[in-house]
Each structure stands twice: as C-alpha cells, then as structure tokens.
Amino acid sequence: MTVPLLEARNLSLQRGGVDVLKSVSLTVRENDVLALIGSNGAGKTSLLLALARLLPVGKGDLLVNGEAVRGGRAELGYRRRVAMVLQEPLLLDATVTVNVATGLSLRGTPRKEQQERVDEALERFGITGLSRRSARSLSSGEARRVSLARAFAMRPEIIFMDEPFTALDLPLREALLLQLTQLLHSEGITAVIATHDCREVLQLCNRLAVMNKGRLIGSGTPDEVLMNPPDDFSAAFARYAHSFNCTTRG
Ligand SMILES: Nc1ncnc2c1ncn2[C@@H]1O[C@H](COP(=O)(O)OP(=O)(O)OP(=O)(O)O)[C@@H](O)[C@H]1O
Ligand SMILES: [Mg+2]
C-alpha cells in the first residue's frame, strides 16, 4: 500500500473554547477528489482550515507523504504546496490582476510567468474582462471566481475548496463541473471540497466523507457512503441525489 499524500491522525481543534473537531482521522491519496459533506456547523470549514494549516491544530498530526507537518520549516514547505478557496473570499483592496498574482509574487515567480499564469486563470474562470477592476467592487459571484483563479494560478499540489461554486451563475457552474475533473487530472491536483451540492459530489469526487458535530463518521466512495449513509443528514443527501437522478463520476 502506498503512503497517502495527506493523512490526518486524530485531529482535534477548539474554536472560541468549543470543540469543533473531535479526533478526526482521514487519508487522501494522490489525485483523489474528496468531498466533505455534513449539516451546517458540522465542522467542514474547520477541517479544511486545519488541513490547510490555516488554523493551529490542538491535538493530532498531519502527515504529508508520511512525514509530519510540524515545525516552522515543515509548515512553510507544506503551505507552498497547498492552496485554499475560502467559503467567504478574502480579497485584497487591489485590482483583480494583483489579487490573482499575489501568491505567485510572494513565491518569487518570475514576472513573465506570473503574467502568463494570471491570464490563464482569469480566462479559465471567465473574468478576463474584470482584470483591472478593484476587487472590492465585485459581486459575490465575481469575487468567488477571483478566489478560484487565485488558487488555481498557484498550481498547488493539493487544493482545499470550501463550497467553491456556491455563488456562481448556472452556465459557469455547469462549465466548471465539466472542466474541473479534467483540470484536476491534467494538472495532477488532489482536492478536498466541502459542499452541499450532490452534483458536485457525484460528478467531481471519487471519495466522500461525512462530518457530524465535529466528527468524521463515515467515508468511502460516494456509492459506498450513500448506499449506507451513516446519519440522517447523509441519508437525506442520498435521497436528494437519487430523486434528482445525480449520476456518479465516470
Ligand atoms: N470562531 C469561532 N468561534 C467559536 N465557534 C466557532 C467559530 N468558528 C466556527 N465555530 C463553530 O464551529 C462549528 C463548526 O463550524 P464550521 O464552520 O466548521 O461548520 P461547517 O460544517 O463548515 O458549516 P456550514 O455548512 O454552515 O459552512 C460550528 O458549531 C460553529 O458555530
Ligand atoms: Mg462551512
């Protein structure tokens, strides 16, 4: 058995004095697209932030290729390999181009390459026409596209996406659902996606994990989990997917 790309072992996390992650263990293999589902407040965002190391974890370990991400250098090295699309896009008070280029310039990417990658990302998410606009003046769907473009421009090894398509209009959402599997595959990106959308789960993802009150209570292929849902939420999710005739990836 090969070592998983990413492994969380018994991660626990408190926020505001409340236990929001309770001994969560999870493995993500290279090229997996893992969906996290669960009711509001179940801990999906908290888990993504903990996996991306954007929140300090109380207990437990995070391993990448079998090595613990612990200590300044390991954390810094890890952060360079991952990107995150937040549930609420956090954009700088600058143009769209500057926002998309920021991570690349912080990493010292040569200017010409920055420009190429930014142009490619803007085009991919249909926001080339917004490149000179102030990010603060954007609609929420436009801001979401900028946030996606910024993350993909980094060409991360692992991308964490928190309800990435929520505010997007239908044509872009449809197009991205079709393109994203291909994009993740061709760029060799492993993804973890929190979502409430059964089509995102079934069309994009080859793995599914269910969160409930800070615990990870079930995981497997989407078919395995939804055939035998571990809680009421995932049972409702399975019925919804069934009633809308959502089909699985492949
Ligand atoms: N800063 C905070 N201080 C205290 N509690 C918090 C904080 N942030 C989140 N929580 C709590 O942690 C729990 C998990 O929240 P989280 O945002 O991870 O849930 P979620 O599964 O992403 O929900 P949603 O589907 O609504 O996005 C919730 O009970 C929430 O109220
Ligand atoms: Mg959330």
Write the layout of secondary structure elements.
Layout: E1 6-15, E2 18-28, E3 33-37, H1 44-51, E4 59-64, E5 67-68, H2 72-79, E6 82-85, H3 96-106, H4 111-124, H5 140-153, E7 158-162, H6 170-186, E8 190-194, H7 198-204, E9 207-212, E10 215-220, H8 222-227, H9 232-243
Parallel strand pairs: 3-8, 3-9, 6-7, 7-8
Antiparallel strand pairs: 1-2, 1-4, 4-5, 9-10
What features would you describe in this structure?
The protein is globular and about 50 Å long. Helices cover 39% and strands 24% of the residues. The chain has two domains: 1-81 and 157-244, Rossmann fold (3-Layer(aba) Sandwich); 87-155, no CATH class. Strand 7 (158-162), helix 6 (170-186) and strand 8 (190-194) form a beta-alpha-beta unit. The model has no long low-confidence stretch (mean pLDDT 92). The relative contact order is 0.17. The strands form two sheets. A six-stranded mixed sheet has the order 6-7-8-3-9-10, with helices on both faces. Strands 2-1-4-5 form a four-stranded antiparallel sheet, covered by helices on one side. Helix 3 packs parallel to helix 5 and helix 6 runs parallel beside helix 7. The chain is an alpha/beta fold and 250 residues long. It contains nine helices and ten strands. The site of magnesium ion has 5 residues, from helix 1.
List the total number of helices.
Answer: 9
Proportion in β-strands: 15-25%
Q: What is the name of the CATH class of the largest domain?
A: Alpha Beta
The CATH superfamily label of the largest domain reads P-loop containing nucleotide triphosphate hydrolases
First-last Cα distance: 24 Å
Helix content: 25-40%
Number of domains: 2
Strand/helix succession: EEEHEEHEHHHEHEHEEHH
- Strand order within the widest sheet? 6-7-8-3-9-10
Average pLDDT works out at 92
CATH architecture of the largest domain: 3-Layer(aba) Sandwich
**Quick one: overall form?**
globular
